[in-house]
Fold this sequence. Notes:
It is a single chain. By secondary structure, this protein is of the alpha+beta class. It has 2 domains: 5-199 and 351-414, FAD/NAD(P)-binding domain, CATH 3.50.50; 204-345, no CATH class. The chain is built from 16 helices and 20 strands. The chain has helices at residues 5-10, 20-31, 47-54, 65-70, 76-85, 88-97, 118-130, 183-188, 210-216, 252-256, 258-267, 283-290, 299-305, 310-319, 328-336, 391-414, and strands at residues 13-16, 37-39, 60-61, 102-104, 109-112, 134-136, 140-145, 148-152, 157-160, 164-167, 194-200, 204-205, 220-229, 235-244, 248-250, 271-276, 338-342, 344-345, 353-358, 375-377. The strands form 5 sheets. A 7-stranded antiparallel sheet has the order 17-16-13-14-15-12-18. A 5-stranded parallel sheet has the order 6-2-1-10-20, covered by helices on one side. β7 (140-145) and β8 (148-152) form a beta hairpin. The longest helix is centred in the last third of the chain and has 24 residues, at 391-414. The mean pLDDT is 96. The structure holds flavin-adenine dinucleotide (FAD). Flavin-adenine dinucleotide binds next to α2, α3, β7 and α16. Flavin-adenine dinucleotide (FAD) binds at residues 16-22, 39-42, 47-49, 51-52, 55, 57-58, 140-141, 168-170, 173-174, 178-180, 182-183, 352-353, 379-380, 390, 392-393, 396.
Amino acid sequence: xxxxxxxxxSFKIAIxxxxxxxxxxxxxxxxxxxxPTVFDAKPSAGRxxxxxxxxxxxxxxxxxxxxFASRYFEAQPFLQPALEIFSPDDMxxxxxxLGFETxxxxxxxxxxxxxxxxxxxxxxxxxxxxxxxQFKMKHRFVGWSKDVWQFQTPDSIKDxxxxxxxxxxxxxxxxxxxxxxxxxxILKDKGLNISPFKPxxxxxxxxxxxxxxxxxxxxxxxxxxxxxxxxxxxxxxxxGELLVSEYGVEGxxxxxxxxxxxxxxxxxxxxTVYLDLFPHRTxxxxxxxxxxxxxxxxxxxxxxxxxxxxxxTSLLREVLAKEHLCExxxxxxxxxxxxxxxxxxxxxxxxxxxxxGLGFENLDKLLMLKDFPGVFCxxxxxxxxxxxxxxxxxxVMGQGKQAAEGLLKLLQTKNRPL
Length: 418
Ligand SMILES: Cc1cc2nc3c(=O)[nH]c(=O)nc-3n(C[C@H](O)[C@H](O)[C@H](O)COP(=O)(O)OP(=O)(O)OC[C@H]3O[C@@H](n4cnc5c(N)ncnc54)[C@H](O)[C@@H]3O)c2cc1C
């Protein structure tokens, strides 16, 4: 039997963390007639969600569900329930319910039509507030003992007590947006297992020459195939696009493999991966083309006729001495297997997301802490990672929904206390 309305409104549910995971939990609870209070350290909600909007807000992905679910690596079994109750299609319906149509981009990634986060977040917050969700901003969660939850506010430390709490405190990247990872010290004191945070979906450092860096930083390297062997000896290989940056390389092709490349570098650095700069031409074809008589043409003009221009020619000059630039066999071999040496990975502060965090072994199937009934944990604060492609937002919002539905289920069977 569901509790009556007066009961639900007086039931004190706190959601700590106003990112997409926490907001989705608030939505489920307020839709069910409860009046959760969302606390956040920052003056406004969803700062990282807004930042994601700067890249077009990739909400989810249109690939088939089993492939989608496999993107969460070894954490897939733990994410599966969240993805089943909040699938990529559900993500699209959710955006639509707030008045925002979505579309599938050429790579299969799904975006809101306007590719903006701010209007969507505004509409979401408006709906939540209209539906009894309260917000307490500038409330930094700093401690928890027994039934007392402590928050640092601009004026003082304030104590609260709640009937149930959903923690949605985020990972540790882009800390100026709110997720600092400070919560790990509080939860470690409770005896919970927390793996150290590591960068995920980050760039890698390459020792470009000063000339190359100056000329090509910010240049995309399109239609290349990246390959290397992961720590298990499996060949990883994918066609895509990366971006040359001042410090090295970043972009979707790099992020796809950031987990595997990080693991290799943790074992031994530097790591050499290989780029096929002409994936649609064989090495023998390239050699044949590069062996054609050049006549009076300059080397650059000759290369240009073969489609070898810009950043690709300069990459050759990065690894081959001038006297070797006229050797068709060596050139063809280098173009098909260009060695890209990754010295190290970029720091967590710059990463799009984080690996590490609170282990799933601390949680039951509802995402509630086994040792602390009534306290749930969701989103990027948990120990899982996924590449870019909309998997992060779908995963964190799915977990927000999973925990909130879990709490509702408990309330239906037990009413209170938990
Ligand atoms: C540049 C960038 C681009 C991205 N683009 C995409 C994209 O296109 N698609 C995609 O799927 N994902 C993207 N992501 C990742 C995505 O934004 C995150 O995975 C997602 O926001 C995590 O949600 P969350 O609710 O778990 O945590 P967060 O969004 O990090 O929210 C956590 C909240 O908890 C609050 N908090 C933390 N500690 C405390 C405390 N002690 N007390 C009170 N409040 C606290 C923080 O202020 C924050 O508001 C991007 C990330 C970045 C940085």
